[in-house]
Automatic annotation (TrEMBL):
Pfam families: DUF179 (PF02622). It comes from Chitinophaga filiformis (Myxococcus filiformis). Belongs to the UPF0301 (AlgH) family. This is YqgE/AlgH family protein. InterPro entries: AlgH-like.
Length: 148
C-alpha cells in the first residue's frame, strides 16, 4: 500500500472511532502509516478556535484520534503553499500554515484546494496491514472518495 491510498472501514470497526470512516493515507514506510479521516466534519469551524478567532470561517475535519491538540492539512496548491511534502502528484501534506491561512482569509484558496484536520490516524509498522488482512479496512478507488 502506498501513500495516496484511500481506505474505508468495514463493519468490524462499528462502535469504534472509525465507524463508517474513509481514511486518506499520507505516509507509509517502515515505521508505519499516517492518514486522516476525510468524511467527518469537526463540529466547529477554524474561526471558533481561540487562536484563529480573526480568521475566516473555514471547515475543519476530525482527522483522527491521535494528537488532537494540533492541526494538520493537505492541499493541492504547492505553487502557493511552500514546504509541503508530496503525497501524490497533486496532493501535498503540510507546509507553510501561516501562508495557507492568509490565502484562506483572502479567498485565494478554498475548500476545493485544502483540508484542515484536527488530529490524525497513526499505525505502527505492519499494524495497518494486519488490520486490512483481518478485514477491518478495504481499499477503495480515489474516484469513490474524492478529497477536493
Amino acid at each position: 500500500m502506498n501513500a495516496g491510498t484511500f481506505l474505508r472501514s468495514t463493519s468490524l470497526l462499528d462502535d469504534t472511532f472509525f465507524e463508517q470512516t474513509v481514511i486518506f493515507i499520507t505516509e507509509h514506510n517502515e515505521k508505519g502509516a499516517m492518514g486522516f479521516v476525510t468524511n467527518r466534519l469537526f463540529p466547529r469551524r477554524i474561526n471558533e478556535l481561540v487562536e484563529f478567532s480573526n480568521c475566516a470561517p473555514f471547515p475543519l475535519y476530525e482527522g483522527g484520534p491521535v494528537d488532537q491538540e494540533h492541526l494538520y492539512f493537505i492541499h493541492q496548491r504547492p505553487d502557493l503553499i511552500k514546504g509541503g511534502d508530496p503525497v501524490t502528484a497533486h496532493i501535498h501534506l503540510g507546509g507553510d500554515f501561516k501562508a495557507a491561512m492568509q490565502y484562506i482569509n483572502d479567498n485565494t484558496i478554498t475548500e476545493k484546494d485544502i483540508r484542515i484536520f484536527i488530529g490524525y490516524c497513526g499505525w505502527d509498522d505492519e499494524e495497518l496491514e494486519a488490520e486490512i488482512a483481518e478485514g477491518s479496512w478495504e481499499l477503495i478507488q480515489e474516484s469513490q472518495a474524492a478529497l477536493f
